[in-house]
Amino acid sequence: MASEDQDQKVTLDPTYDHYDFPVHSATERPGHPGHTTPEQDAQVFQLRSLLEQEGYKDRLDTLTMLRFLRARKFNVEASKKMFIDCENWRQEFKLDDLVVNFDYTEKAQIFQYYPQYYHKTDKDGRPVYIEQLGKIDLAAMYKISTGDRMLKNLIVEYEKMADPRLPACSRKAGHLLETSCTIMDLKGVGLGSASSVYGYLKQASGVSQNYYPERLGKMYIINAPWGFSTIFSFIKGFLDPVTVEKIHVFGGGYQATLLDQVPAENLPKAFGGTCECADGCELSDAGPWHDPQWAKPAWWQVKKTEQEAKKPEDIATEDAAGSASIPAESGEAATVEGAAPAEAKPADAPAAATDTQKAPVA
Protein backbone atom coordinates (compact mmCIF):
# COMPACT_ATOMS: atom_id res chain seq x y z
CA MET A 1 0.00 0.00 0.00
CA ALA A 2 1.29 3.46 -0.80
CA SER A 3 2.38 5.64 2.09
CA GLU A 4 0.48 8.78 3.07
CA ASP A 5 3.41 10.92 1.89
CA GLN A 6 3.27 9.28 -1.52
CA ASP A 7 -0.49 9.79 -1.73
CA GLN A 8 -0.09 13.52 -1.13
CA LYS A 9 2.00 13.71 -4.31
CA VAL A 10 -1.03 12.88 -6.44
CA THR A 11 -1.95 16.16 -8.13
CA LEU A 12 -5.71 16.58 -8.43
CA ASP A 13 -8.03 19.29 -9.69
CA PRO A 14 -10.64 20.53 -7.19
CA THR A 15 -13.16 21.26 -9.95
CA TYR A 16 -13.32 17.74 -11.39
CA ASP A 17 -11.70 15.32 -8.94
CA HIS A 18 -14.17 14.13 -6.30
CA TYR A 19 -13.09 10.54 -5.70
CA ASP A 20 -14.13 8.40 -2.76
CA PHE A 21 -11.49 5.73 -3.32
CA PRO A 22 -7.65 5.69 -3.25
CA VAL A 23 -6.02 7.43 -6.21
CA HIS A 24 -2.38 6.44 -5.73
CA SER A 25 -1.45 3.70 -8.20
CA ALA A 26 0.56 0.65 -7.23
CA THR A 27 1.93 0.64 -10.79
CA GLU A 28 5.24 2.42 -10.26
CA ARG A 29 5.72 3.65 -13.79
CA PRO A 30 5.83 7.24 -15.04
CA GLY A 31 2.43 8.54 -16.05
CA HIS A 32 0.45 6.62 -13.44
CA PRO A 33 -1.22 8.49 -10.55
CA GLY A 34 1.33 9.15 -7.84
CA HIS A 35 4.20 8.60 -10.28
CA THR A 36 3.84 11.54 -12.64
CA THR A 37 6.53 14.06 -13.53
CA PRO A 38 5.96 17.83 -13.36
CA GLU A 39 5.85 17.82 -17.16
CA GLN A 40 3.14 15.14 -17.17
CA ASP A 41 1.12 17.09 -14.59
CA ALA A 42 1.35 20.11 -16.88
CA GLN A 43 0.16 17.99 -19.82
CA VAL A 44 -2.90 16.92 -17.82
CA PHE A 45 -3.72 20.59 -17.21
CA GLN A 46 -3.08 21.43 -20.88
CA LEU A 47 -5.30 18.62 -22.18
CA ARG A 48 -8.12 19.53 -19.80
CA SER A 49 -7.89 23.21 -20.76
CA LEU A 50 -8.03 22.42 -24.47
CA LEU A 51 -11.11 20.24 -23.95
CA GLU A 52 -12.80 22.92 -21.86
CA GLN A 53 -12.21 25.37 -24.69
CA GLU A 54 -13.98 22.90 -27.00
CA GLY A 55 -16.96 22.95 -24.64
CA TYR A 56 -16.46 19.67 -22.78
CA LYS A 57 -17.40 19.51 -19.10
CA ASP A 58 -17.76 15.82 -18.27
CA ARG A 59 -15.09 13.16 -17.68
CA LEU A 60 -12.31 15.74 -17.33
CA ASP A 61 -11.07 14.32 -14.04
CA THR A 62 -7.36 13.69 -13.57
CA LEU A 63 -7.48 9.87 -13.70
CA THR A 64 -9.34 9.98 -17.02
CA MET A 65 -6.98 12.58 -18.45
CA LEU A 66 -3.98 10.45 -17.47
CA ARG A 67 -5.45 7.32 -19.05
CA PHE A 68 -5.96 9.08 -22.39
CA LEU A 69 -2.51 10.64 -22.20
CA ARG A 70 -0.83 7.30 -21.45
CA ALA A 71 -2.71 5.72 -24.35
CA ARG A 72 -1.17 8.31 -26.69
CA LYS A 73 2.29 8.46 -25.12
CA PHE A 74 1.51 11.88 -23.57
CA ASN A 75 1.02 13.51 -26.94
CA VAL A 76 -1.54 16.13 -25.93
CA GLU A 77 -3.02 16.72 -29.40
CA ALA A 78 -3.35 12.99 -30.08
CA SER A 79 -4.92 12.50 -26.64
CA LYS A 80 -7.35 15.33 -27.32
CA LYS A 81 -8.43 13.71 -30.60
CA MET A 82 -8.87 10.35 -28.89
CA PHE A 83 -10.99 11.90 -26.14
CA ILE A 84 -13.20 13.78 -28.61
CA ASP A 85 -13.64 10.65 -30.76
CA CYS A 86 -14.64 8.78 -27.62
CA GLU A 87 -17.13 11.47 -26.59
CA ASN A 88 -18.69 11.43 -30.08
CA TRP A 89 -19.02 7.66 -29.82
CA ARG A 90 -20.57 7.95 -26.35
CA GLN A 91 -23.07 10.48 -27.68
CA GLU A 92 -23.94 8.16 -30.59
CA PHE A 93 -24.85 5.42 -28.11
CA LYS A 94 -26.30 7.91 -25.58
CA LEU A 95 -24.21 6.09 -23.01
CA ASP A 96 -25.02 8.24 -20.01
CA ASP A 97 -28.68 7.25 -20.42
CA LEU A 98 -27.97 3.71 -21.61
CA VAL A 99 -26.06 2.64 -18.52
CA VAL A 100 -28.89 3.92 -16.32
CA ASN A 101 -31.79 2.38 -18.23
CA PHE A 102 -30.48 -0.69 -20.09
CA ASP A 103 -31.97 -3.93 -18.83
CA TYR A 104 -30.49 -7.07 -20.36
CA THR A 105 -33.44 -9.29 -19.53
CA GLU A 106 -32.26 -12.01 -21.91
CA LYS A 107 -28.91 -12.36 -20.14
CA ALA A 108 -29.44 -15.88 -18.74
CA GLN A 109 -30.61 -17.19 -22.12
CA ILE A 110 -27.73 -15.58 -24.02
CA PHE A 111 -25.25 -16.96 -21.49
CA GLN A 112 -26.24 -20.47 -22.55
CA TYR A 113 -24.42 -19.70 -25.79
CA TYR A 114 -22.02 -16.97 -24.76
CA PRO A 115 -21.08 -16.58 -21.09
CA GLN A 116 -19.32 -13.24 -20.44
CA TYR A 117 -19.07 -12.09 -16.85
CA TYR A 118 -17.09 -10.52 -14.02
CA HIS A 119 -16.21 -12.83 -11.17
CA LYS A 120 -14.27 -11.88 -8.02
CA THR A 121 -10.66 -10.64 -8.17
CA ASP A 122 -7.12 -11.72 -9.02
CA LYS A 123 -4.13 -11.61 -6.66
CA ASP A 124 -3.53 -7.96 -7.57
CA GLY A 125 -7.07 -7.11 -6.46
CA ARG A 126 -8.38 -6.45 -9.99
CA PRO A 127 -11.79 -7.68 -11.17
CA VAL A 128 -11.58 -10.88 -13.21
CA TYR A 129 -13.53 -10.84 -16.48
CA ILE A 130 -14.31 -14.15 -18.21
CA GLU A 131 -15.58 -14.90 -21.71
CA GLN A 132 -16.32 -18.36 -23.10
CA LEU A 133 -16.52 -18.21 -26.87
CA GLY A 134 -16.72 -21.90 -27.74
CA LYS A 135 -20.48 -22.12 -27.31
CA ILE A 136 -21.28 -19.15 -29.54
CA ASP A 137 -24.22 -19.91 -31.83
CA LEU A 138 -25.13 -16.66 -33.53
CA ALA A 139 -28.24 -18.09 -35.19
CA ALA A 140 -29.63 -19.19 -31.82
CA MET A 141 -28.56 -15.94 -30.12
CA TYR A 142 -30.28 -13.79 -32.74
CA LYS A 143 -33.53 -15.60 -31.95
CA ILE A 144 -33.16 -14.37 -28.35
CA SER A 145 -31.63 -10.95 -28.81
CA THR A 146 -30.14 -8.65 -31.44
CA GLY A 147 -26.59 -7.73 -32.33
CA ASP A 148 -27.30 -4.18 -31.20
CA ARG A 149 -28.44 -5.25 -27.74
CA MET A 150 -25.51 -7.62 -27.32
CA LEU A 151 -23.09 -4.81 -28.19
CA LYS A 152 -24.89 -2.46 -25.81
CA ASN A 153 -24.57 -5.03 -23.02
CA LEU A 154 -20.82 -5.26 -23.66
CA ILE A 155 -20.51 -1.47 -23.45
CA VAL A 156 -22.67 -1.18 -20.33
CA GLU A 157 -20.48 -3.76 -18.62
CA TYR A 158 -17.41 -1.66 -19.47
CA GLU A 159 -19.16 1.27 -17.79
CA LYS A 160 -19.96 -0.83 -14.73
CA MET A 161 -16.35 -1.97 -14.51
CA ALA A 162 -15.36 1.70 -14.22
CA ASP A 163 -18.02 2.26 -11.56
CA PRO A 164 -18.75 0.48 -9.24
CA ARG A 165 -16.35 -2.44 -9.74
CA LEU A 166 -12.94 -0.73 -9.88
CA PRO A 167 -13.65 1.76 -7.06
CA ALA A 168 -14.73 -1.09 -4.76
CA CYS A 169 -11.63 -3.10 -5.66
CA SER A 170 -9.46 -0.01 -5.03
CA ARG A 171 -10.98 0.50 -1.59
CA LYS A 172 -10.33 -3.12 -0.67
CA ALA A 173 -6.76 -3.09 -2.04
CA GLY A 174 -5.93 0.27 -0.42
CA HIS A 175 -4.56 1.70 -3.66
CA LEU A 176 -5.85 2.66 -7.08
CA LEU A 177 -6.81 -0.12 -9.48
CA GLU A 178 -7.70 0.90 -13.05
CA THR A 179 -7.53 -2.40 -14.95
CA SER A 180 -9.04 -5.87 -15.12
CA CYS A 181 -7.70 -9.39 -15.56
CA THR A 182 -9.37 -11.10 -18.52
CA ILE A 183 -9.69 -14.81 -19.20
CA MET A 184 -10.86 -15.63 -22.71
CA ASP A 185 -11.71 -19.30 -23.18
CA LEU A 186 -11.66 -20.57 -26.77
CA LYS A 187 -12.52 -24.16 -25.90
CA GLY A 188 -14.87 -25.51 -28.54
CA VAL A 189 -14.08 -22.86 -31.14
CA GLY A 190 -13.88 -24.78 -34.39
CA LEU A 191 -13.42 -23.92 -38.03
CA GLY A 192 -17.15 -23.35 -38.48
CA SER A 193 -17.35 -20.65 -35.83
CA ALA A 194 -13.84 -19.29 -36.11
CA SER A 195 -14.62 -16.41 -38.48
CA SER A 196 -17.48 -15.04 -36.34
CA VAL A 197 -15.51 -15.49 -33.10
CA TYR A 198 -12.38 -13.78 -34.41
CA GLY A 199 -14.47 -11.05 -35.97
CA TYR A 200 -16.02 -10.44 -32.57
CA LEU A 201 -12.58 -10.39 -30.93
CA LYS A 202 -11.47 -7.70 -33.35
CA GLN A 203 -14.62 -5.63 -32.67
CA ALA A 204 -14.40 -6.00 -28.89
CA SER A 205 -10.69 -5.20 -28.87
CA GLY A 206 -11.38 -2.08 -30.90
CA VAL A 207 -14.04 -0.87 -28.45
CA SER A 208 -11.69 -1.46 -25.53
CA GLN A 209 -8.62 0.12 -27.10
CA ASN A 210 -10.34 3.16 -28.65
CA TYR A 211 -12.94 4.06 -26.03
CA TYR A 212 -11.76 2.51 -22.76
CA PRO A 213 -7.99 3.08 -22.85
CA GLU A 214 -5.68 1.66 -20.20
CA ARG A 215 -8.31 -0.72 -18.82
CA LEU A 216 -6.63 -4.03 -19.68
CA GLY A 217 -4.25 -5.32 -17.02
CA LYS A 218 -3.66 -8.85 -18.27
CA MET A 219 -5.42 -11.17 -20.69
CA TYR A 220 -5.13 -14.93 -20.77
CA ILE A 221 -6.41 -16.61 -23.94
CA ILE A 222 -6.80 -20.28 -23.07
CA ASN A 223 -7.65 -23.46 -24.98
CA ALA A 224 -6.50 -21.75 -28.17
CA PRO A 225 -7.12 -24.09 -31.13
CA TRP A 226 -4.55 -25.12 -33.67
CA GLY A 227 -3.78 -22.30 -36.03
CA PHE A 228 -4.82 -19.57 -33.59
CA SER A 229 -1.30 -18.18 -33.35
CA THR A 230 -1.42 -17.36 -37.07
CA ILE A 231 -4.77 -15.59 -36.75
CA PHE A 232 -3.66 -13.81 -33.59
CA SER A 233 -0.63 -12.48 -35.42
CA PHE A 234 -3.10 -10.82 -37.78
CA ILE A 235 -5.24 -9.46 -34.92
CA LYS A 236 -2.14 -8.05 -33.21
CA GLY A 237 -1.67 -5.72 -36.15
CA PHE A 238 -4.74 -3.80 -34.98
CA LEU A 239 -3.57 -3.51 -31.38
CA ASP A 240 -1.17 -1.19 -29.64
CA PRO A 241 2.17 -2.90 -28.80
CA VAL A 242 1.62 -2.13 -25.10
CA THR A 243 -1.70 -4.00 -25.28
CA VAL A 244 -0.10 -6.94 -27.06
CA GLU A 245 2.43 -7.31 -24.24
CA LYS A 246 -0.42 -7.89 -21.79
CA ILE A 247 -1.88 -10.83 -23.75
CA HIS A 248 -0.77 -14.41 -23.05
CA VAL A 249 -1.93 -17.29 -25.26
CA PHE A 250 -2.20 -20.93 -24.17
CA GLY A 251 -3.46 -24.12 -25.72
CA GLY A 252 -3.83 -26.51 -22.80
CA GLY A 253 -1.76 -26.53 -19.63
CA TYR A 254 -2.81 -23.05 -18.53
CA GLN A 255 -4.11 -23.91 -15.05
CA ALA A 256 -0.87 -23.31 -13.15
CA THR A 257 -0.42 -19.92 -14.83
CA LEU A 258 -3.98 -18.86 -14.02
CA LEU A 259 -3.58 -19.96 -10.40
CA ASP A 260 -0.41 -17.87 -10.16
CA GLN A 261 -2.57 -14.85 -11.01
CA VAL A 262 -5.99 -15.73 -9.52
CA PRO A 263 -6.57 -17.30 -6.06
CA ALA A 264 -8.04 -20.80 -6.36
CA GLU A 265 -11.10 -19.78 -4.32
CA ASN A 266 -11.81 -16.95 -6.80
CA LEU A 267 -11.29 -18.98 -9.97
CA PRO A 268 -14.24 -21.03 -11.28
CA LYS A 269 -13.70 -24.77 -11.06
CA ALA A 270 -14.00 -25.06 -14.86
CA PHE A 271 -10.66 -23.26 -15.18
CA GLY A 272 -8.75 -25.11 -12.47
CA GLY A 273 -9.97 -23.20 -9.41
CA THR A 274 -12.22 -24.27 -6.57
CA CYS A 275 -15.08 -21.75 -6.82
CA GLU A 276 -18.57 -23.14 -7.39
CA CYS A 277 -21.13 -20.36 -6.91
CA ALA A 278 -24.59 -21.59 -5.93
CA ASP A 279 -26.36 -20.41 -9.09
CA GLY A 280 -23.31 -20.66 -11.33
CA CYS A 281 -20.28 -18.37 -11.34
CA GLU A 282 -21.36 -16.82 -14.64
CA LEU A 283 -24.51 -15.34 -13.11
CA SER A 284 -23.25 -14.51 -9.62
CA ASP A 285 -21.38 -11.24 -10.33
CA ALA A 286 -19.53 -11.95 -7.08
CA GLY A 287 -16.90 -9.44 -6.02
CA PRO A 288 -16.06 -6.54 -3.68
CA TRP A 289 -18.56 -4.38 -5.58
CA HIS A 290 -21.33 -6.25 -3.72
CA ASP A 291 -19.59 -6.25 -0.33
CA PRO A 292 -21.03 -3.48 1.92
CA GLN A 293 -17.57 -2.95 3.39
CA TRP A 294 -16.19 -1.78 0.03
CA ALA A 295 -19.16 -1.03 -2.23
CA LYS A 296 -20.73 2.39 -2.70
CA PRO A 297 -23.50 3.33 -5.15
CA ALA A 298 -22.21 4.13 -8.64
CA TRP A 299 -23.20 7.45 -10.21
CA TRP A 300 -25.62 5.67 -12.55
CA GLN A 301 -27.21 3.79 -9.63
CA VAL A 302 -27.81 7.10 -7.84
CA LYS A 303 -29.35 8.56 -10.99
CA LYS A 304 -31.56 5.51 -11.49
CA THR A 305 -32.79 5.69 -7.89
CA GLU A 306 -33.60 9.37 -8.35
CA GLN A 307 -35.52 8.60 -11.55
CA GLU A 308 -37.50 5.83 -9.90
CA ALA A 309 -38.34 8.09 -6.96
CA LYS A 310 -39.90 10.75 -9.18
CA LYS A 311 -43.66 10.77 -9.50
CA PRO A 312 -45.07 10.35 -13.04
CA GLU A 313 -46.56 13.87 -12.92
CA ASP A 314 -43.10 15.31 -12.07
CA ILE A 315 -41.57 13.60 -15.08
CA ALA A 316 -44.40 14.85 -17.33
CA THR A 317 -43.87 18.41 -16.03
CA GLU A 318 -40.12 18.22 -16.73
CA ASP A 319 -40.74 16.88 -20.24
CA ALA A 320 -43.23 19.65 -20.96
CA ALA A 321 -40.83 22.29 -19.66
CA GLY A 322 -38.06 20.87 -21.83
CA SER A 323 -40.26 20.99 -24.93
CA ALA A 324 -41.37 24.56 -24.19
CA SER A 325 -37.73 25.72 -24.06
CA ILE A 326 -37.22 24.88 -27.76
CA PRO A 327 -38.27 27.83 -29.93
CA ALA A 328 -40.64 26.87 -32.75
CA GLU A 329 -39.65 28.07 -36.22
CA SER A 330 -37.11 30.45 -34.74
CA GLY A 331 -33.56 31.26 -35.72
CA GLU A 332 -32.54 31.33 -32.05
CA ALA A 333 -30.22 28.66 -30.72
CA ALA A 334 -32.00 25.99 -28.70
CA THR A 335 -30.69 23.62 -26.05
CA VAL A 336 -31.66 20.10 -27.03
CA GLU A 337 -30.37 16.65 -26.19
CA GLY A 338 -27.24 15.86 -28.16
CA ALA A 339 -26.27 19.51 -28.72
CA ALA A 340 -22.64 20.48 -28.21
CA PRO A 341 -21.98 21.75 -24.67
CA ALA A 342 -21.40 25.44 -24.12
CA GLU A 343 -17.86 26.71 -24.03
CA ALA A 344 -16.37 26.67 -20.55
CA LYS A 345 -13.50 28.69 -19.14
CA PRO A 346 -10.30 26.78 -18.37
CA ALA A 347 -10.05 25.53 -14.82
CA ASP A 348 -7.61 26.97 -12.33
CA ALA A 349 -4.21 25.31 -12.01
CA PRO A 350 -4.49 21.92 -10.25
CA ALA A 351 -3.74 21.66 -6.56
CA ALA A 352 -2.17 18.84 -4.57
CA ALA A 353 -4.65 16.59 -2.80
CA THR A 354 -4.73 13.48 -0.70
CA ASP A 355 -5.66 10.07 -2.06
CA THR A 356 -9.31 9.87 -1.00
CA GLN A 357 -12.03 12.08 -2.46
CA LYS A 358 -15.74 11.83 -3.12
CA ALA A 359 -16.71 9.76 -6.19
CA PRO A 360 -17.39 11.76 -9.38
CA VAL A 361 -20.80 11.88 -10.96
CA ALA A 362 -19.87 11.59 -14.63
CATH class of the largest domain: Alpha Beta
Largest β-sheet summary: 5 strands, mixed
Q: Give the number of domains.
A: 2
Q: Would you give the CATH topology of the largest domain? A: Phosphatidylinositol Transfer Protein Sec14p
In round numbers, the mean pLDDT is 84
**Strand tally:** 7
Q: DSSP helix count? A: 15
Helix % is: 40-55%
- The Cα radius of gyration reads 22 Å
SSE ordering: HEHHHHHEEHHEHEHHEHHHHE
Strand order of the largest sheet: 2-3-4-5-6
Task: Flag low-confidence runs.
Answer: 1-8, 322-362
- Category by helix and strand content: alpha/beta
Which tags fit this structure?
362 residues, Phosphatidylinositol Transfer Protein Sec14p, 5-stranded mixed beta sheet, two-stranded antiparallel sheet, globular, CRAL/TRIO_N_dom_sf, CRAL/TRIO_N_dom, CRAL-TRIO_dom, Sec14 cytosolic factor
How would you characterize the overall build of this protein?
InterPro entries: CRAL-TRIO_dom, CRAL-TRIO_dom_sf, CRAL/TRIO_N_dom, CRAL/TRIO_N_dom_sf, PI/PC_transfer. This is Sec14 cytosolic factor. Residues 303-362 are annotated as: Disordered. This protein has helices spanning 4-7, 38-53, 62-71, 76-93, 95-101, 107-110, 138-144, 147-173, 191-211, 228-236, 241-245, 255-261, 281-284, 299-309, 312-324; strands at residues 11-12, 116-121, 127-132, 180-185, 216-222, 247-249, 351-352. It has two domains: 4-93 and 344-352, Orthogonal Bundle (Helicase, Ruva Protein, domain 3), CATH 1.10.8.20; 105-290, Phosphatidylinositol Transfer Protein Sec14p. It has 15 helices and seven strands. The strands form two sheets. Strands 2-3-4-5-6 form a five-stranded mixed β-sheet. Strands 1-7 form a two-stranded antiparallel ribbon. Helix 3 (62-71) crosses helix 4 (76-93). 45% of the residues lie in helices and 9% in strands. With 362 residues, it is an alpha/beta fold.
